[in-house]
Design a protein that fits this description.
single chain, 217 residues, alpha+beta, two-stranded antiparallel ribbon, 6 helices
């Protein structure tokens, strides 16, 4: 919502969604690739980059407050009407700096069968113990988490991680039965900052544009 028509927004002269489609195709990892969208414009872009959208997602799954997992369930059930499969990947378009090796390594982690779902994480630059706060309606601030220790430096805090949108891997059975992805045992694969940018604002888009241009030179 921070960027209008974000997935078709031009990043280094290419639609944002094209980076995910091109990487998915070139990776050689997937037996099939599905673009889930409610937009004819996105469907047309996907076709230009090699993916045919046979049916648009219902409007009820495309509102600002629609949980993403409901779209996962919808696409899984629809796909299972024709095919059986044992591994589900989700590659959100907002992570154009992901690498094929990260996805392959996450897949290996999931294949160890220790987790119901594997996702990407990256070390957080902030700690909720001392430099993350919530702002109350009266303007006053409150620490998000309290600790018995008086921690004033990030170095003294526990290591916290941000969830990335690089990749989610699970079984279709787990996605169908769960209400929240965190209902089960979740594994986190650590991804460096330079490949974990999640585009939410135009500022993020500018950073991605800079990094892509830099890597191309």
């Amino acid at each position: 919502k921070g960027i209008k028509d974000k997935n078709s927004y031009l990043l280094n002269n290419k639609p944002l969604i094209s980076y995910t489609i091109e990487l998915a195709i070139s990776s050689g990892i997937f037996d099939d690739i599905v673009v889930s969208t409610d937009s004819n414009k996105i469907a047309d872009i996907a076709k230009l980059y090699g993916i045919e959208v046979d049916k648009l997602r219902p409007d009820s799954l495309a509102t600002d407050d629609s949980p993403e997992i409901l779209s996962w369930k919808y696409e899984i059930r629809r796909y299972q009407e024709k095919y059986s499969f044992d591994k589900f990947y989700c590659l959100p378009c907002t992570s154009p700096l992901r690498s094929i090796d990260d996805i392959k390594n996450m897949s290996k982690l999931f294949d160890r069968k220790e987790y119901d779902l594997v996702l990407g994480i990256t070390k957080s630059s902030k700690s909720p113990l001392f430099n993350m706060v919530e702002r109350k309606t009266d303007g006053s601030l409150k620490k998000i988490l309290d600790s018995e220790e008086n921690i004033t430096r990030r170095q003294d805090s526990c290591v916290y991680y941000d969830i990335t949108t690089v990749c989610y891997i699970s079984s279709p059975e787990y996605i169908i039965k769960t209400e929240s992805i965190f209902d089960g045992k979740i594994g986190g694969y650590i991804i460096p900052k330079e490949r974990s940018l999640d585009i939410d604002t135009l500022y993020d888009m500018d950073i991605a544009n800079y990094l892509i241009t830099k890597n191309d030179n």
